[in-house]
Amino acid sequence: EIVLTQSPGTLSLSPGETATLSCRASQRVTSTYLAWYQQKPGQAPRLLIYGASSRATGIPDNFSGSGSGTDFTLTISRLEPEDFAVYYCHQYDSSPITFGQGTRLEIK
Amino acid sequence: QVQLVQSGAEVKKPGASVKVSCKASGYTFTAYNIHWVRQAPGQGLEWMGKISPSGGSTTYAQRFQGRVTMTRDTSTNTVYMELSSLRSEDTAVYYCARYPQFDYWGQGTLVTVSS
What we know:
The structure holds two protein chains of two kinds.
Chain A: E1 4-7, E2 10-13, E3 19-29, E4 34-39, E5 46-50, E6 54-55, E7 63-76, E8 86-91, E9 98-99, E10 103-107
Parallel strand pairs in A: 2-10
Antiparallel strand pairs in A: 1-3, 3-7, 4-5, 4-8, 5-6, 8-9, 8-10
Chain B: E1 3-6, E2 10-12, E3 18-25, E4 34-39, E5 46-51, E6 58-60, E7 68-73, E8 78-83, E9 92-98, E10 109-113
Parallel strand pairs in B: 2-10
Antiparallel strand pairs in B: 1-3, 3-8, 4-5, 4-9, 5-6, 7-8, 9-10
């Protein structure tokens, strides 16, 4: 099983700043099968990034994904108040499908 | 537009079973696998398994093997997830999501297991 470890657990930033979220895999993940999601309280997760770096439909360009192999990054520039949420990375390269434990992005 | 609409909240006693439905619309039902993911209160996301609506084949996460059954009804574009021998630790929101990128999710179904 591929374990995804996200860091930091909680990130405190102010609107307008840039957030950098990390996702490290215990084994190599094919970039095609690495995604990022945003989840707000009481809502289902929302796809942000797939294929490690492709933005999903309707996702603004201040969200970007990068990385390969075992290290992946989600960058959110020019933070808006609505960007404060929990973020999960996810691999669907091998079974069982796994998720990271999440990074909580909170307003400082 | 693509939608996955799930059945409503359930309250079950320990040892009972629950069956959650996920009705798809806005796309060709048989073209995309449906996965089930659950989230315990205040916790992260846990993959449970998947079903292929076209042929009905399933793959389950090992920890749910023997307790979970996923089925589909192509006449109503609906998939079902049944979890048996419920225990308090199964209290969670259960989501269906469309593969491959999990680009669309159901709204979630809260299942509460309590005596």
